[in-house]
Structures are given as C-alpha cells and as structure tokens.
Amino acid sequence: MQLGLVGLGKMGGNMRERLRAAGHEVVGFDRNPEVSDVASVAELVEKLAAPRAVWVMVPAGVTEATIDELAGLLDAGDIIVDGGNSRYSDDGPRAARLGAQGIGYVDAGVSGGVWGRENGYALMVGGAPEHVERLMPIFDALKPAGEFGFVHAGPVGAGHYSKMVHNGIEYALMHAYAEGYELMAASELITDVPGVIKSWREGTVVRSWLLDLLDAALEADPQLAGLRGYADDTGEGRWTVEEAIRLAVPMNVIAASLFARFTSRQEDSPAMKAVAALRNQFGGHAIHKNP
User: Fold this and answer.
1) Domain tally for the chain?
2) Which residues form the 6-phosphogluconate dehydrogenase C-terminal domain (predicted)?
3) Which of 41, 104, 179, 231 has its CB 3.0 to 4.6 Å from that of 79, i.e. a possible disulfide?
4) Within the chain, where are the H helices?
C-alpha cells in the first residue's frame, strides 16, 4: 500500500522504515531536508496516487496547521490519519470539517516510542469502519506480530481518548516504580537496589516493559546521579484527570502521579514553606531558613 507520512521525527522516521520493511511504499516529508523524501507537503501529495492516505505524525502544536494544509491539497475520497498526541475533543470538529470536503479522518493513538521500529507499535484507532478497513494493511504492518497491539476503539475520537487513558496509566505505573526505588535507596537494609529491580523482571506480578527500562537506566547509572529529578508532562495526564472530574470517576493514583510531576519542578515548594510557617506559628516547631 502507498502512504504519505508527514513528520519523520523519533517515531515517524522509525514508522517509515518499519512500513518499508513490510513492503509498503512510503513518501515522507519532514522540515528537516536531511530525512525528507520530498521538498514540501504539496510534492508529497503529488507523488501519491488517488485515493490517497496521509498519516500526520507531528507535534500537537502544529497538527491543526498541517491538517489544514493537507485539506487544501487533497481530494474527496482521500483519508488523513492523525497519529500524534492530539486531544480527543479536537477530533470530532476536525473530522466534520474534512468530511464536508469528502475527506476521511482517522485518529490513531500510537505507543511504542523509540523501540517501535523493532518491536512494533500499539495502535488505538478511532474512525468510520470503512476508513479503518481501508488502512488495515498499514496498521497490520505497524503493530506487533500476534493478536495484540491493535484496536478499533470506536468512532472518531476514540483512538486519542484511549491513548489519553493509556498515558494516564503510564504516569501512575512509572511513579509507583519510582517511589519503590526511592524507598529502597533510603533503606539501611537494601545494599543492592539495582539488583532488586533486576530480580523483579521475571517471575513477579510487577514485571513489565517499564520495569525493564528502569533496570536499563540503573545499569547505565546505578544512583541516577546524572539526572535531575524534573519530569515534564505532555498533556495526556492532565486530560485524563479532567475527564475523571467531568465523569465523576475516582482517579486517586493517576491524579497523584500527575501532581508529583508538578512537584518535581519546584526547587523550593511555596506550599511547603506555608506549611512550615504554620507549624512554627501554632506549635513553635523549628523551621529551616534559607542561607
């Protein structure tokens, strides 16, 4: 199958190579001319035979502009796939706008990171059945071998919604491992923290790919001394918690893991300063002053 791919960064570039290895023809465009197959999005569209399929794999901040540019170049019967981390609520209006031109729209949550080229990508897809069916050769090539790794989650928006929840769970899992690591590192009993983490990789109920990656990080730096304890969030964790509030779904663990990332960005917490001041005021408890 022929596919246009806009965005050849860490994931998009590897997706292009996995698809080509499976025998598909991929025409890729990226702003970096060193990795791009064509000089422009317009040239990419020209090289595709109708009916076209174009997969957009760009940062969320430029997704809308990229899709608008494609909409001005594509024809009725073509399909656009958004595989970036867009907010699910953007998908419905986007699909309606494209549908007025006869252009199909599919949203695809993609997980796999830099390892996807070798291991395959987990795909959570939203869209009309006929559009998803037409793209199945691409989805089959990108997903891992076997029965798992792909779902047609529902109509437009369901793919990005699923990926949002996936990433919220990811926040919580990572933070649970991190808290366990910190507790063992503080303990006077555990003398080989990296060894304990490594031992959990087989035979335990907490084994996972994330645990494998923590083991790899500790192999490279047993005390993680080269890292600063600062964690960004890309939006999906916030959106997951917002949905929990909207739907009145208790989400204690995911919410706590999100707030922990905010804490990581504070060198000296204003809230904890207030707590220290209050303890001193009502109980005369000692305070630690800045030098």
Assistant:
1) 2
2) 159-286
3) 104
4) 12-21, 41-47, 60-71, 91-99, 116-119, 129-134, 136-142, 158-186, 193-199, 209-220, 236-247, 252-263, 270-283
The yes-or-no answer on residue 170 being catalytic is yes
Residues 179 and 184: their CA atoms lie apart, in Å, by: 9
Instruction: Provide the pLDDT confidence category of residue 14 given band limits of 50, 70 and 90.
Output: very high
What is the pTM assigned to this prediction?
A: 0.90
> Is the model's pLDDT at 268 over the cut of 80?
no
Domain boundaries, position 217: 164-270
What's the whole-number average pLDDT of the chain? 93
- CB 43: neighbour CB atoms within 10 A? 13
Same domain for 129 and 176? no
Q: Is 47 one of the annotated active-site residues of the chain?
A: no
Residue 99 shares a structural domain with residue 127? yes
Does 263 reside within a domain? yes
Q: Helix, strand or coil for residue 147?
A: coil
Q: In this structure, are 84 and 6 located in the same domain?
A: yes
